[in-house]
C-alpha cells in the first residue's frame, strides 16, 4: 500500500492535467464565397476480408466480414465560375486538412484564400489520419508531452523564445490552437499508401494541381510520377522523400538536426523523368541556417533546403522545370514551417498565385 | 522454415487484402451556396504537463513539455442572411462530421441541406476522433473485420439481405463509401469529455440548436444540462445515455440485441429539470420491432425506442416539451440508423425544419 501511494505521488509530480480555459477568441471569418458545389468522399484504400461466410446469428464472429481501410478523405468546394484546374491539398506529419483551413489565430487559410481567387479546392486527410482513420495496420496512440519540441522544430522559435521576426502570432490562444491542430497516425506513415490514394483523387476529379506540405511532399512526388493528371506540383518545405535517378543520388547531407543526415531516395530514371514533364515549385521560409550550425532546428532545415537545391538541379538537368524559392532571398522574412498559416499567408498565397499565372495554370 | 510457411499460408487463408477498385462514381454536388463565413477551430480539452523545465538542447526529453488533447474540432459555415440560431451537429459511434456531409451515394447531406435553408452549421469531430485525435488517454487501434455486423446493426438489412423497403442505395460504391466513413477512437469514448467540449462550442458561438446522432445523444443531454445556450435538442436514434432523475430510473428493458438489456442513467433531479426548459425532439427510423423478437438488430432498436418513450414521458411529467417521432408511424418508411443520409433525407430534413418552425426556432 505504501509503495503504491508513493508511486501515485510520483506520477502526480511528473504529469499534471489542467482543464483548458481557452479565452473566447473565436470570431467568424468574413469570407463571402459563392460555392457552386461542395461535399466529401473517401477514395482509394484496401479491403481486408476474413475467410468464411458471415452468419447473421453470430454477427460478432469475423468470418466472412470485411474491413475497408487506407483510403483518403476529401472535402471539396468549387466556387462559381471556377478556374479549370483545381488545387489538391495534402498536409504534412501529424497534421490533417486543418493545415489549410483557418489559421491558429482564426484568419483565412489557403482554403478560403484560393476559393476567393476562383480555384476549386480539395482538402485531404491522408490514409490513417483524421477522418480517414481506418488503417489496415495496427497502431498504438499515446499522449506524449512534446509540443515544445514541435514549436522549435517548426521554427516558431527556440522555445520559449520566439524568433524576433517570426510570422507567428505570439498570444497564448493561437499557440494552443496550433498545438491542438495536430492529430495522430492511426497506422504508420507509408508514402506508397498515401500516394496511391492521392493518385486516385486525381482519377476521380481529373486534372489538377497538387499542393503538398512537409512530409506530404514525398508522397506528392510519387503521385506525380503515377498520374499525369497532376499538372503541376507545389511543395512547401519538403524535407525527406526527395527522389533521384539510379546512380545520381547525392551523398547524404550531414546535419546537426535531430533527424541526423539527410539522404535522397533512389528510383528508376524512367520514373524520375516523369517529374520533368510538369512545372514544380518549392518554397522555404525563414530562420534556416546558411551554413552548418549547432542550432539544431535551423540546421535540420538547412539540410532540407540544400537537398531541395540539388533536387531542382537534377530535375532541370533532365529537361524539367523546377525551382526552389527561399523566401528571405526575395525579401519575405520570418516564415515558420507553416507558411500557409503564418501572419503573412496572404503574401505567401499571392506569390503562388503569381507563379500559377506565369505558368498558364490559372485559366 | 516449414512451419513458418505453414503459418503464412494459414494467415493468407484467413485474411486477404485487396486493393480497392472503386468505380469512378464521384460527381460534384450542385449546391450553389452563398457563404458569408467559414472556417475551423479546436475547442475545449485538457493539457498534460510533465514537471521540469524544457531544455532546447535536449528537446526530445519530456521535462517541461505539454500535450494538449481531448478538444473537439469544429468546421463552421454561415450563409448570407443566416437565421438567428445555428445548428451544431454531433456524430455517433465510429463516425466523424462526415455523417452530416455528402451521403454515401454523393447527394447533399444535412450540412448542405440546412445551409440551403439559411441555417449556420457547425460540424464537430468529438474529442478523440477524426481531426480531434489528440487524446490524453492511450488507445490501441486495430483493423477488425466487422462491417457486415455494422450493416446489420445499423438496419440497412440483415446482411447480405437489404430490408425490402430500405432507404439505402443498393450499389457497391455507396456501401463502400459507407464502410469507409467510419473512423476509429484514438482514446476511449467518455461522455463527460465529449459534453465538456461541446458545451464550450456553445460558449464560443452563443445560442444554437444541438443535433445529435446515436451515441452522441448521451453527451448531448449532458451538454444541454450544462449550457443554457443550447436552445433545443434534436436527437436521431439515441440508444444509451438516457438520463432520469434519482428514484425515477425505469427498470432495464430486456432485449435480444447484442448489447443486451438497456438501462437508464440516474442523475440529480435538479440536473434533469434543466432538460425541461427547452424543446426536444427524437426521431427513429424503420425496421424496429414492435414487440420482442429474436431478430437482434430489430430488437436492439426496439429497446432504444421504448426507453425513448419512457424518457419523453418523464421529461413531460416534469413540465418539459419533448416528443419522440417513429417515422413509420407518420408514413415515412425504410429509414436506417442513418436517417440524415438515407435516400429520403430531404424529407427527413424537411420534417425537422417544420418542427423548428413550429417551435419558433427558425427566425
Could you explain the architecture of this structure?
Two copies of one chain form a homodimer. The first copy, chain A, is of the alpha/beta class and 363 residues long. Chain A has a single domain, classed as 3-Layer(aba) Sandwich (Rossmann fold). The first copy, chain A, contains nine helices and 16 strands. In chain A, the strands form four sheets. In chain A, strands 2-5-7-6-11-12-15-16 form an eight-stranded mixed β-sheet, with helices on both faces. Chain A has a two-stranded antiparallel sheet with strand order 3-4. In chain A, strands 9-10 form a two-stranded antiparallel sheet. In chain A, α6 links the parallel β11 (208-213) and β12 (230-236). At the A-B interface, β1, β2, β3, β4 and β5 of A face β1, β2, β3, β4 and β5 of B. β3 (46-50) of chain A pairs antiparallel with β1 of chain B. Chains A, B: This is Alpha/beta hydrolase. Chains A, B: Residues 1-21 form the signal peptide.
